[in-house]
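3.2 Worked example (two chains)
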Amino acid sequence: MFGLKVGRFVIIPPENPIVGFLGKDVILPCQLTTSSIPESTSMQVQWILDKSSEKIDVKSYYGRNRPETQDNRYRGRAELSRTDLSKGNMSLILKKTHLSDQGNYTCIVFLGDWYDEVVVELVLAAKGTEPTIALVGYKGWGISLTCSSNGWYPKPKAFWLVSEGKVRSKQSDTTITETKAGNFTVSSSIITDSGVDHEVSCKIINELLEMESESRILISGDINQFLLYITKGLYNGQQRRKRNSCSSFFQLYPFFFFAANVVLDPKTAHPRLNVSDGKCFWDTGNISKVPNCEERFDSHTFVLAKECFSKGRHYWEVEVGEKRKWDLGVASEFAHRKGEITLSPQNGYWVIGLEGRKNYWARTEQWTYLKVSGKPTKIGIFLNMPAGSLCFYDVHNNRKLYTFSICCSGKLYPFFSTGSVAAELDSQPLKISPWLKEDDTVEEDGKKANISEMAQD
């Protein structure tokens, strides 16, 4: 650099490494201590990535009348802001970052006979998927849970928490694996206590981003005692077929602990609705002659369940199939049932719904649009009165759709609707999914076993 002056301007160095999100765009700063460069000044800007084995030409600009150069690996991904160069902003815009983009970048600037350079370090990070907690089954007298998540970078930390957010002191079996893509997958297992009500959380932390993801599961002590009694019969080694059946049963029904036997109340159903067996209903399109009792909805195709809840935790599922429209949730015992009704928590309705085949909404005071992947055909609804929450799930894809906070006094009724009567008639039914009970059976290899029989030695 003989003959070049280095004191006229200075490039302002970043105080810390630049942290970018893996797969997203990032800006590597290179700003001069000037906001105006004369147009007549000759200018060169080079960005070089210093790898141990090579120096990569990420982007080189030699002035308006000379061609730029760039390594093929960065063609179309690394750019300079042409309009900002004259303002002393030589920053590099790096698009769709890869793990291989990490490292030390040197920003070299020539302005006439002036020269300076600065090193900018880029580190990348990624927050993985929300942890999924699965009920594997029973091990000894405890409940085996697994927590899984993927897409983390750099290597994260995983913790199990108990009530009140305290780190669980008992040992967990945690494996963090690097994938071929270079990011990390987390799998962690614990055996949690049974016989008492308690909450367990799985938390995964990216310390670089100072970000975390957490999922929770509530374990009901009362029903655990019943299920553990079943397990005692399963693990005596005498009935292998029953063991396999119950293992499948536990994997498929993680909310069995809180299953509610929800039955529709025909006395609340709008006259256009036909209610069958207390579990199925549809819009006939015609007004039936039914008593106009106090409980009945008269302006909207709504119906409530007979059961109401004021405490505890309750879960039910509704098969929506290919219906073009529907609404599901809970309604307050004090909510209006006559005349025009606007579905919102302020009016005593906590509801999500589908409009026009593909638009999902939470019926908040101003509707909240829900980004839903695919088309859910079965909706799970979990009412947690102690926590004051109502959660909706896409059952088959094991995804949470939305959570309401509920703060109300009085009773709540499961709520169902076939959607707006002003829209095109959709006569497809809504069905409340049946849940296994003590006197029900599970099937394995074409053979049936009664659940209560499984508890027998």
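3.2.1 Second chain
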Amino acid sequence: MKRFGGIVAGVVVSGALALSFLSGSADAALSSEPSSVEQMGPTHLVIGLDLSKSNPLVTSDVYAAQVANRLADEIRELPVRSKVTVRSFGVYDTGSNPLRIDQVISARARPGDVADGIQALVSNLPRLVSEGRLEAQMKTNIVPFLETMAGGIDCSSPTKIVLLTDGAEDSELGRLTRSGGSLPPAQAGSFSGCGELLMLGLGRGFNSPSTTARFRTAWTEWSDEAGFDRFVGLYDW
């Protein structure tokens, strides 16, 4: 964990903190100015970063910047007392996925600052992987990741899950590939009451409209069975 000096559970993820992560320092400047976001019901935004080698997120600077900008828009809309949770996934091994952020939006952790920090982190993922500070992984455990997270999510409160993934499940439970495959059955109702499952980059890297459509159909059916109100899978935006 020491090599991830700027990413520690429970710290304020400001733009300064993200830059400190990239430079290896954990120091961050905190702002005491009030948030400009109008107070609404707090939301739990869960963000999953797919670090598998099939995902252009770990190899393409251009794509990482694009998806980071889209993700930041989601965070900037959050009201005070919302919670942002960030985890990485790939192989089914927590030791290979030490990246963990848990941040509550507040006057000291404004949504714009949190958005800037996470945007800087995500846009620099290809660099962090190339430098060996994060590891690109050989498996894509999307369903196991979601099932693990389900145990700590309260869907009775507004909840949205955003996965930065190509959607190509490759785990012991099931596989989705260019030529076929299927997802494992969802644990029925495990996300009952949760609002939206959003995948950014669905089918990205396969460059095949039919593959993207098949992935979208599979994940729509899976999310319905799991209990999400809706599924959105975007190849581009």
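3.3 Remarks
The chain is about 30% helix and 15% strand.
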